[in-house]
Amino acid sequence: MPAHTLSLIIPVLDEATTIGATLASLEPLRARGVEVIVVDGGSRDGTAALAAPLCSRVVEASRGRGRQMNAGAAVAGGESLLFLHADTRLPAEADRMIEAALAGGHRWGRFAIRLEGRHPLLPVIATAMNLRSRLTGIATGDQALFMTREAFETVGGFPDQPLMEDIAMSRRLKRLSPPACLREKVTSSGRRWEQNGAWATIQLMWRLRFRYWRGASPEKLAREYRHVR
After folding, report:
1. pTM (2 decimals)?
2. How distant, in Å, are the alpha carbons of 28, 126, 143 from that of 115?
3. Whose CA is closest to 9, among 39, 34, 33, 45?
4. Residue 222: DSSP 8-state
5. Diameter over CA atoms, the chain
6. pLDDT digits (tens, 9 = 90+) for 80-100
């Protein structure tokens, strides 16, 4: 793959414990010419300094995952964009899978997900996430959203909102084409469910999604989410 055909953008905030391992896992992709951009939203734990020698560049942006991802896309050189959470690992051939999916007529897509952790419900949760995404065409950020730069620019990038930016982005992109729902899996941390309780987290997320669907403001939902966490 030629240099910068694909740019990978990772928004971070206080991810010192995970960013080194995440970036190390991306070294084979960088060796094949993938650009890796880390966008720091004001970390206080040295995340940016840890990331700098392990990525193509570090960008500073105001806090907010949507804002940070847009900031990364603004400086990216790739024809295609991949947005990755700091606690998520890609399959080894992710760049080639994305290239094939976008060459096949899709303008955007996502991977399936596997949740890493000890809780026995995590495989069930991951299966439900993958099925829901396939049926609705709505992807979550945990599933490593990817798209052509042209699609990103056509829909105006990610919305500037503090929660549910991935759902809003999926809705925008669905107007352009159905998503490529790759069966290959990214591996994401199950820490959210293990730390806060699996059932409690499931109920919280469904409640927030339902209220968002009913028109509740992302700002109000984000305040509730932070309070519960």
Report:
1. 0.90
2. 22, 6, 10
3. 39
4. H
5. 45
6. 999 999 999 999 999 999 999
